[in-house]
Amino acid sequence: MTRNKTLILIAAVAVVILALLAVQVLRRQERNRWTTSSEVARVQFEECLSSIMKIYYGDAVAHCAKAVKADPNFAVAKVFYALLINRRDPTESKELQSQVRAADKSRLTPRERFLIDYHLARLAGKQERASQILSSYLSSHPDDPFALTERCNELWLGQKMQASEKCYQRVRRIDPNWVEAQNRLGYAAMAQGRFKEAEELFDTYRYIAPDQANPHDSLGELLTLVGRYGEAQKELAAAISTRADFCASYEHWVQLDLLQSRFDDAEKRIAAMKSQADCAKSADLLTCGVSLWRAAHAGDWSAAWDVAHQAGCIDHKNGDVFVIAFRAALELGKRSDAARIKDRIRALETDTKMPPEARNTWAAVLDHLDGLEALKDGDNTKAAKSFREADAKLRYWSNAGLGTFKLFNRLSLAEALSREGKPEEAAQVRREIASVNPKIVQFDYLIPEATPNAR
Amino acid sequence: MRMATALKLLGAMAFALAALSIVDMFLPRPYDGVVLESDAYSELRVRQVVPGTGAAQAGIRHGDVIVGIGREILRSPASAARQLNRYRIGEIVPYLIRDATGIHEVEVRLGHRQIGDRSYLYACLLGFSFFFVGLFVLRRHPAQHANQLFFILCTLFMLFLICRLRPASYSQVDTFVLATGTMALVVLPSAFLDFYLSFPRPRWRSHKPAWLPQGLVLAVIYGLPPLVLLASLASSRTREQPPLLISGAPAANWWILAVYMILGLLALGWNAAALKGTRERRGAWLVLAGSLFGLGPFLVLAVAFPSLLHTERFLFYGVVPLLLVPLTFAYSIVRFQLLDIQVILKKSLLYTVTTATLTALYAVAIASFNSLFGGTALADSRWSPIVLGLAIVLLFDPVRRRLQVAIDRFFAAERSHLQRAMVEMGGTFTADDDLQGAVLRLVERLPLLVKVDFAALYLKEGERLSRVSGPSQLPSRLDFLPDLHRAISRTEALPRVSALLLDPSLGPREELLLNRLASGGAAALGSLASSRRILGLLVLSKKSGQIDFEPEELALLHGLLQQAAIGLETNFLLEERTRRIELDRDLEIAASIQSALLPKSVEVAEGWSVAAACRPARQVGGDFIAKLPTADPRSAALAYGDVSGKSIPGALMMMAAHEILHALAMTASGPCEVFSLANQRLYQLRNRSFVALGYLSPLAGGNRLRYLLAGQPPPLLRSADGIRELDLPPHRLPLGALLNGSYQQMEVSLAPGDLVLGYSDGVVEALSPENEMFGSDRLADIVSTAPQDPANVVASVLEGVTAFTHGQEPYDDLTLICCRLNPEITP
């Protein structure tokens, strides 16, 4: 073999060996992204993060506890554990936080240092400081999905819908299997009326995590909104079958029952919900809501008024409760009570402690009540204007509730326009409603008739 | 050479990658039956679904996008491969598919991996053919720029054909291989244009403006495609839109390729038009035609159609014409000597033809087998194709050997011509008497045999070399420089002049001669030398084409030259032998004449007994004995001569001296006059020969003996007192040495029974095997103990010398004359 051939052979072998070594190093780095000497702690912590993403907070607490137990020096696991138990056991949470503050962070990865500093700041109530830490870390690690997701969540909660949507899209580009991004993007699309896109995103979410309750629940919400009640029921049932303690799915299923005026089924659902300890508190509000809807559906406004006040429903500060109670007050001629309801809502709308999104929703509710009142008074023009203002403030989905309220408001708008003598505009609004959910038009019983002494 | 090594390393990596691509296509792995679009941007778009596979059964169709496999959203074909490899063949895997109606989840049962279709396998074969052609070209002449470029071009073609035309799927290496194929496509235009600018002559370098650096032109040629690629990608990123891709590369790069190809073909046409040699020009035009007809359909049918129209129906017809490119190159190179790659072409063609022949044989065998045994258990047996395959494998080598003969005959024509010339020369040597003529004819045929501009032959004449064949631009005569011939003969192949100029063993005279030859166009030299002598020098010009001599060619020429040298040596030996025979015959005659000149009787005077012997060292000698008359009619004298020079010249001189002495002895007054006149006469011959002469003249009826010496040793006197040398005359120069010689007659009186022995120097200078001289002492000893009779004295001396020399042929002629005063004579 000539010398050249030998060199070529050696070089080729060297290239192969280097490539194999590089693969091994990369795999090792992948395995070592969390600083712990315990493999059990690492696995448990990753399970904890996975559970948080799945919104299985109970499981997340258990996994993080195991991680901390397996490696008491596992600082980042301690921070997440402190975060998860902060409401339930603030004392232990604070103890964990102080331990982490005192720990040596020199050997931690930049991501771990960021997560610790960021969540410690949040736990200490220093939101601005947390935001600074996040910005600083993102400037050097712009593609870290952990940090980017936190920034997206900030934007989401700050009602910056378009910015948060772009942010989540970026997370999805970085890691298309980051389900939190899929879910939030689905809701963002749904809120803006892009239902097909939302369905694809939720479908994708469900494809990635069919063993999680949340994607079924998200899809159930969407299908409920767009009137595909049968499919919605299947998804909600799948969510509950996946996690019996997934309270949100009970709530959405009850809502689905109410939209179909299946009040008995709704009550059964509430009974099942009550069997789950964590869901009991939500069950009370739902019980109240079902009774109100049943009374309204029967046109028994006195009963509705009584339910709203006797069972303390009105204190739940729920939009549906306020609207039905207000409608009852109008029908019963209790204008001063109706005004008090509006005052209560106005107080919520101006409460600066409330999230902007919630305040915006309360403003929309207020506009809607104004519209109802105007409609009752026969002032159809004013009613239409109020309904339009409410419509502008409402989305098809928000943290405050499903977009069915927007559809009800639009239904009221159509009625107002119709009474105002604008049948074409009214028909157009009805077509728009039907394009979203053709079954919602039957809910015209929620729209008050004008009183004879109206102007 | 570093460049060549780097290129070989690059080639090895490219080859490994191509092999990896093919091996990967054949590895069994879970497969859904989907063939992906290779130019889809960051999504897995289905180009084709293999009928009957899991994907087909799941309803996946052309145009669908695979969003996820196995509960994971996919980012690349590689991530799909990772997912698929987590499953086993036969398992059902959830797929997330997006089609025109939306996004759906379907279940796909995984089957066995399907390999690429026939057109891809053909593309692989073609790709490897390109690569091996390029590799062997590089190996033949690694330092030649055109060869390096040709290798790069061939390697890029291989990568493009094997990696870029690979049916995209989810294989582990898909992304890497396809990206490499794309990069090959990005670099290919530059290498293409660079090669065509340099092939067959880089004419543009001498025509470019002086202010334009050559490096800048090449930097632009090579820099533009990557810049366009980067700009295209950057632009798409800025616009957040995928770039327009064709077969995986941005459309802009295809434009670059098209423009470069047009420029390259124009450059080739321009280069071809300027070529002076008709052969080269025809070759270049042929390459141009092959490139046009090969690349045109390829770009349209094998690249544009699949990329733009999503049809591979015409792929095969696009790839087939591509074969025209290497074929026209190959043909031009072999036929018109543009580049010397016949060896690889021979090998690649050999194995291609062998494989094709065997494949055809296999197909025929299978078809025959099926028609004969169709439906029987034998035909259904899975072993039958294996057995047939084994039979074909066994046939491979015999078929290859048969084909090799035919292919060798076509491709290795020059070597074959040389070998045939060697055979012919052998035949000529046995059949032809005119061997030198045969060698000359061979030298005159060499330009045709090895495609050189000229061949010249110099033959040694004395200390010079004379041109006997070859162009007049070479010197007609050269100095014979042994060191140069030794340097030429040191290698087993003809050395190049350039290499000899660097030989440290050669001095300035050799360097001067080499430069003279080089200025006359000499490129390689060969020494015509036998084991006995150096016969001449062969001078070869550079080859007619672009390339240099092949090492094997030079070795063959060396062998041919050795054979010619043997022929010439044989010729010389035959001539010598003829001359020797003639000479021997002449010598025989001369010897008989010489013998006839010896006196029949050495009786010279009453009362004296005389004996003489003259033994030539060779067939004819330079010594002689002449019986000369004296003034006393009762007495005669004996002259014994020794001519300097042997053989024919010596014999002729001896004859002259003999006759002169005879003639002068008739008329001269005495021996001194004879000596003087003979000296003058011999001096006039001016041939630098001398004659040592002794003269013994016993006086009749007395006891006195007169003697003269001219260059001969003093005679010995044996008397009762013992042995002594006779007195020497004051002058005894040999005859012919000086014009005016002076000679004196001496006289000695002897007692009865005394004897005088005259002898030539050949006696005392005879050498033993140990190189010891016989010497005067030994002579004196023999003479002192020898019997009384002069004949016995002479015989004893001759015996003594023979014994001393152990019978070896004497160095010089031996001449002895012994005169004895008879005892009955009373002083």
Describe it for me?
- The complex is a heterodimer of chains A (about 450) and B (about 850).
- Chain A is mostly helical.
- Helix content of chain A is about 75%, strand content about 0%.
- Chain A has helices spanning about 5-30, 40-55, 55-70, 75-85, 90-100, 110-125, 125-140, 145-155, 160-175, 180-190, 195-210, 215-225, 230-240, 245-260, 265-275, 280-300, 300-310, 320-330, 335-350, 355-375, 380-395, 405-420, 425-435; strands at about 395-400, 400.
- A two-stranded antiparallel ribbon of chain A has the order 1-2.
- In chain A, a hairpin with a 2-residue loop joins strand 1 and strand 2.
- The longest helix of chain A has 29 residues, at about 5-30.
- In chain B, a hairpin with a 5-residue loop joins strand 17 and strand 18 (about 705-710).
- Chain B is rod-shaped.
- In chain B, about 40% of the residues are buried.
- Classes of the chains: A mainly alpha (about 450), B alpha+beta (about 850).
Can you describe this structure in just a few lines?
The complex is a heterodimer of chains A (455) and B (827). The mean pLDDT of chain A is 86.
